[in-house]
Design goal:
13 helices, 4-stranded mixed beta sheet, 48% helix, Arc Repressor Mutant, subunit A, single chain, alpha/beta
Length: 261
């Protein structure tokens, strides 16, 4: 791209988005459409390429970007599953090769917490109609440790005393997901929403500890707020999520930053 710095409007770009934790691709497109004569998609693709090549912006995935200098302080969320979680995944994959499911464990939240719990919940989220079959299959290998969509009383009386209980839950459709070591794994955005909404399952993570988890997660990793709120709305908890973040944490949401501009 000729005259790169002139065409990219770098001073204005940084001024416009300086308060943004992340920048949506559509917002970048709008920015250049307003400032470029004969704007077209070919120009926009070249502009994005130049911004990445010059290490001005870094892609975060899902059509989101961030300034390189901000990226230094945050990183993409990655997690190495335990041997037991990997074993459970292999059992499910072998028995139900076409099943849509996710696996994760609450020990991934420990790095965000002040008080480290001694328990690790292993979660298997599967299509609703197959949950009971998955439960029965896992019970064959982990007798007495597997629970199907448990109630609060069951959690308190039978599950909490165990160190590594396995909980089978119905999977919410269109849940944000990724893979770790080929294991279908929920994105951190989904996990944060779930521990806020599913209080019967995750009541041990509530109160001040929930605020700690959110603040430390937001400060440490890149989180796609649009993805997070889209999933929360799917769970009919968009307002709940917004109110919690605004009243119980020091996190400043993108929507708050934009309202101040």
């Amino acid at each position: 791209m000729k005259n790169t710095y002139t065409q990219l409007h770098l001073p204005e770009l940084k001024s416009t988005f300086s308060e943004h934790v992340s920048i949506a691709k559509n917002d970048l497109r709008s920015f250049y459409r307003m400032r470029t004569n004969d704007f077209n998609e070919q120009f926009f693709r070249r502009a994005l390429y130049a911004l990445e090549k010059e290490q001005i912006l870094v892609p975060l995935g899902s059509g989101m970007y961030a300034f390189r200098e901000q990226e230094v302080n945050k990183r993409k969320f990655l997690y190495s599953p335990s041997k037991e979680l990997s074993s459970i995944h292999q059992t499910i994959q072998k028995t139900f090769p076409y099943l849509d499911y996710l696996c994760w464990e609450t020990m991934i939240l420990h790095e965000f917490m002040t008080h480290q719990p001694g328990q690790n919940l292993i979660l298997v989220e599967a299509e609703k109609d197959v949950c009971e079959s998955v439960f029965n299959r896992l019970m064959g290998k982990h007798t007495g440790r597997v629970f199907l969509d448990p109630s609060r009383s069951l959690m308190e009386n039978y599950i909490l005393p165990q160190a590594n209980p396995i909980i089978v839950l119905p999977l919410i459709s269109e849940a944000p997901r990724t893979t770790h070591n080929n294991i279908p794994f929920p994105k951190l955005e989904k996990i944060l929403v779930d521990i806020l909404v599913d209080k019967n399952i995750f009541f041990a993570f509530q109160g001040a500890e929930l605020s700690n988890i959110y603040e430390n997660a937001f400060n440490t990793y890149w989180l796609n707020q649009r993805t997070m709120f889209r999933y929360a709305r799917r769970r009919k908890a968009g307002k709940t999520l917004q109110e919690f973040i605004q009243t119980k944490t020091g996190i400043q949401l993108e929507m708050q930053r934009k309202s101040k501009q």
